[in-house]
Amino acid sequence: MKKDNISYENLKESLSYLDEDDIKLVDKAYNFACERHEGQQRRTGEPYIIHPLNVAYILTTIKADKETICASLLHDVLEDTNTSLEELEKIFGKEITKLVDGVTKINNINISTENEYLTSYYKKIIVGMSEDVRVIIIKLADRLHNMRTLYALPVEKQKKKAKETLEILAPIAHRLGMHKIKRELEDLSLKYLKPEI
Which of 48, 62, 88, 180 has its CA 20 to 30 A from that of 54? Predict the structure, then answer.
């Protein structure tokens, strides 16, 4: 199976560590995300839902809890659809909504890696904005899938995202002990920044 050809069935198989009620909540989050992202496409030309599906799948490799999996499926609905915070909270409760809102806030930071001071500053901001470490974990999985499909972006953007990933997000993954994700983030970043290596 190609890394980004994940189906919802693949995701459910990898959620065997959750119980039946947890899976029902994940089903609800998936169906809601499908409905809200209906008609949207990624730059790769795929239906948008492929992205949250892959982010959730990455998180099953670390046995993330049901709230994290649900929030990963919903992580772009506040930013990219007409879903409101209130509506999300009414349907999915405070905890999941807080996670989704946290990821949305991180996504809205305009990151710069111009110098070492700024790099360190943004690392602190990202960590500081996340009262709940699961927000950062979702963000790392989100970036990992985006790095796997970075080829779809213009060259300038590829380099910017790769530098940001290498200097800010990979070190955060390292600090959290997420070594497999950190390694893949570094490898994918270097592919765009220093292909000769």
Answer: 88
